[in-house]
Amino acid sequence: MAGYNTGYNAEDIQVLDGLEAVRKRPGMYIGATNSRGLHHLAWEIIDNAIDEVEAGYCTRIRVTLDPDNSLTVEDDGRGIPVDIHPKMGIPAARVAFEVLHAGGKFGGESYKVSGGLHGVGASVVNALAEFLLLEVKREGKRFRLEYADGGKLVSELKVVGHKVKGTGTKVTFRPDRAIFKEQVFKAEILQSRLQELAYLNAGLVIDFLDRRGGERSETYCARSGLVGFVDQINAEGGNEPLHKRPLYFRGEKDGVQAECAIQYNDADMETFYSFCNNIATVEGGTHESGLRTALTRVFNNYGKKAGLLKKDESLIGDDLRDGLVCVLSVKVREPQFEGQTKTRLSNAEVEGIVQSLANEGLNGFFEQYPNVAKEVINKSWRTAQVRIASKRAKELKRMKKDAEAKALGGKLAACSEKDKFKNELFLVEGDSAGGSAKSGRDRRFQAILPLRGKVINTFRAKLDKVLENQEIRSMITAIGAGLGKEFDVEKCNYARVCIMTDSDLDGAHIRTLLLTFFYRYMRPLLLDNRVYIAQSPLYKVQKGKGIRYAYDDSELKQALRDLGRNAQVQRYKGLGEMNPEQLWETTLNPANRKMIQVTIDDAVAAERKLNICMGPAVEPRREFLMENIVFTEADI
Ligand code: 0R9
Fold first, then answer.
1. Third-level CATH fold of 226-390
2. pTM (2 decimals)?
3. Which of 152, 359, 575, 631 to pair with 541, CA 20 to 30 A apart?
């Protein structure tokens, strides 16, 4: 091996600087120095052997754990090149183990991973190893290269054997005890990844040998690749497959390879494993969405063509998830990874490619195995029916809720407290006064229900017609104690129900209607003395900053006397003329307001004469109500 430098030159020193950087900040390269980081070293070397599998030259990989906690990975590929790297002036094998990120440059056509922590290269493993030994079988010779203490060259690459049969690469290393908190490789962790790799690379044989404390060996090989993978997932989960033969397709388009196996089971969980370049894409990505789109489309199309689904029956993606066990593996030349753990494939082009490969592949599969399609479609249609039924039930429930809310017209401004013995409901004439009342009230215990003029339109109607009136229904819902015989005053949501109408004829009409209504349909409310008439002032008298409100003419006179001449008098034509503050001050505030409590002196007599109220003449009705329903000023 003459012709190249065996001592250290300037480049070597640069190289060592690079490896020293890895030793200073191992986390930057392998994530952490815990068990995860430790195993990461193994994945790096194993990945390099897998790359050689991808390249089509390697059929067998052997992984050995030894009692000194060293790990050996051996492949039967071409062997790492040993010739001199033209720029570096040292053997290519040395470049691979000494220069950070050198591996990819030699990767050629294979599918190298550029995302996450994978693919940081063999040099990082070397930097974090107490020793690393490389043996290469190539060109009939055996070569050997040795490092120690984080990548320091111990023995230059040299020929140690001749007339050697076969080719391959063997790497042995021991993680640096000074760097790793966790130093012991776990057999189960290695085995599970090796098994996964065997499934992902159909036909590849992987031997695992644990020589620490009694020999344990295992050989992983999946002749049928992903098909075996889904089979095993179902077996492990104890789930009965819905169809014996897993759905399977593989294909290549525009440099993207996709392989997929699907087997439904009788459970309702979904198990979906996806991989890109043999790396688990835990967060999914474009390959997954492409497949899911294709799945839904192909099943629907086939179902309709085969008469398993009617024209107006469609499966949605969710229907096809129950009991789905799917493994999808893609090989992409320049994968991009995103997401929290950098395990979501984001190459946009992959979505369409996988979708089209899956379309073709699944259709082809269905042609050959129509019974599988039938089983899956029938099962998924049952899922769909449950979905549709539950959606309908939800819709009905929502409609009912909406109807109830509509009954209140969304107009009730409820109070925040739930105290039935304190809360007050104000039935306010008109939206404008209703708005002022909503702003002016004490929202903790005062609820406002604005009543539109429509109430009065039904004034002449029979009471059963009145019940069709939206405003009346809103009121019934708000009070919440039922109606007529069923009326239960205990359930009444309010201690006081206060009628608040304008001090004009329309206002009186509305008030009368409401009182009649209470008398007839909510009589216990009257008997329990819970009905009130809010009194709003008729006048506002102002002089400078002095303001007085007058509720009748005698009060007006008194106010004018008190404030003296030149006082301004405003006559309120309606509640709507008052702003929220004024409404609060004069009509709502329990400290100032004058409310009239409505009582029934003679309920029996009132009932007998009630017919008058139903008559067309306004006056007799008014008289009747004035006579029979006595307003007394409440001192509350
Ligand atoms: C035991 C783990 N296996 C490896 O680390 C491994 C790396 C490797 C490899 C090549 C073949 N087998 C390998 N096993 C290889 C060979 C050739 C071209 N590219 C790759 C060839 O013969 O032309 N290499 C991976 C990187 C390198 N070799 C390189 F950087 F050293 F070239």
1. Ribosomal Protein S5; domain 2 (3.30.230)
2. 0.65
3. 631
